[in-house]
């Protein structure tokens, strides 16, 4: 959108291409709810799961007001909002994309060394990297990085440059939230080795050794999302080797050492291991 293009005209063009849009007011935020919808008195959209205009027909409820319906965009209920609008926003999840919002030079440098190339749109302070595919939105997944997709809005800043790549696992992993640490009393490392109730799947000692070595390598090779990688690796090890009692303190030591070499604390390792045990019922 250039300086001479009215936000409503931009919105109509985007809606015609299947991108759900909504107006943003000064401060680049959605318009407040109308009197009928104030404090969600109307109940809002059912569970706020899908985009679309509220039944009151005004651009209420933030991202959930986003629409591709041209009749809504030009309706009297939206007219006052467009007269005050400073720019257009869209619902990335409704458009089938995920926006990796990079807010500073350090975040951009991280993306260039970590994520696959894709469509890039310059923003006020950084860049939006657009990937094809949707996921849960989450802010502050790392310094200067937000994820905007389902149930979120992003400013429309133009088409950018480059071909849109498929949403990579490295981006999905950024939104993984590890379960809250289980309430527990402090344990020695030996207390975290459990099992002995299932049939042993290890045909030879080398089978277990290979599994632990692969887990250590997976943690060591993690380029980002180390918290999520450590937890999911612990979960995988325990799901395969945690029931028969063959895992020893030495094996756990190796896994913890690999995680701590990537910057994890001993406390985080213990919490991640305990959470994995709890998840698997061990």
Termini, distance in Å?
Answer: 56 Å
How many DSSP-defined strands?
Answer: 10
Shape: elongated
- Please state the structural category: alpha+beta
Mean pLDDT: 83
List the total number of helices: 9
Low-confidence stretches: 46-51
The percent range for helix content is: 25-40%
Q: Major beta sheet, specifics?
A: 6 strands, mixed
Sketch the topology as an H/E string, one letter per element.
Answer: HEEHHEEHEEEEEEHHHHH
What is the rounded Rg? 24 Å
What is the percentage of strand-forming residues?
A: 5-15%
Oligomer state equals single chain
Structural write-up:
The protein is α+β, with helices and mostly antiparallel strands and 282 residues long. It is built from 9 helices and 10 strands. The strands form 2 sheets. Strands 4, 5, 6, 7, 8 and 10 form a 6-stranded mixed beta sheet that branches. Helix 6 (205-220) packs antiparallel against helix 7. The radius of gyration is 24 Å and the shape is elongated. It starts with 6 loop residues before the first helix and ends with a helix.
In short:
By secondary structure, this protein is of the alpha+beta class.
Task: For this entry, give a set of tags.
single chain, 282 residues, alpha+beta, six-stranded mixed beta sheet, 10 strands, elongated
Question: Strands, helices and their partners?
Answer:
Layout: H1 7-16, E1 21-25, E2 29-30, H2 70-73, H3 76-84, E3 87-90, E4 97-102, H4 105-114, E5 119-122, E6 127-132, E7 138-142, E8 145-148, E9 154-155, E10 165-166, H5 169-174, H6 205-220, H7 226-241, H8 249-261, H9 266-280
Parallel strand pairs: 6-10
Antiparallel strand pairs: 1-2, 1-3, 3-9, 4-6, 4-8, 5-6, 7-8
Helix pairs in contact: 6-7, 6-8, 7-9
């Amino acid at each position: 959108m250039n300086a001479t293009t009215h936000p409503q005209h931009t919105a109509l063009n985007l809606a015609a291409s299947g991108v759900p849009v909504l107006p943003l007011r000064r401060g680049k935020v959605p318009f407040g709810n109308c009197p009928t919808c104030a404090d969600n008195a109307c109940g809002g959209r059912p569970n706020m799961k899908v985009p679309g205009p509220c039944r009151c027909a005004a651009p209420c409820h933030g991202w959930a007001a986003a629409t591709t319906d041209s009749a809504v965009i030009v309706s009297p209920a939206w007219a006052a909002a467009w007269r005050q609008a400073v720019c257009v926003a869209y619902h990335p999840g409704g458009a089938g994309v995920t926006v990796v919002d990079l807010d500073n030079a350090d975040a951009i440098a991280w993306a260039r060394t970590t994520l696959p190339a894709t469509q890039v749109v310059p923003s006020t302070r950084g860049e939006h990297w657009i990937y094809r595919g949707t996921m849960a939105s989450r802010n502050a997944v790392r310094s200067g990085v937000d994820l905007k997709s389902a149930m979120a809005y992003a400013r429309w800043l133009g088409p950018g440059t480059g071909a849109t790549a498929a949403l990579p696992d490295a981006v999905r992993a950024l939104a993984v939230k590890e379960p809250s640490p289980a309430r527990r009393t402090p344990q020695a490392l030996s207390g975290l080795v459990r099992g002995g109730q299932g049939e042993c799947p290890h045909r030879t000692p080398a089978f277990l050794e290979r599994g632990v070595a692969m887990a250590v390598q997976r943690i060591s090779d993690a380029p980002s999302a180390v918290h999520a990688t450590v937890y999911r690796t612990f979960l995988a090890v325990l799901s395969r080797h945690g029931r028969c009692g063959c895992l020893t303190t030495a094996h756990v030591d190796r896994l913890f050492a690999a995680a701590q070499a990537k910057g994890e604390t001993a406390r985080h390792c213990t919490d991640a291991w305990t959470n994995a045990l709890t998840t698997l019922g061990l």
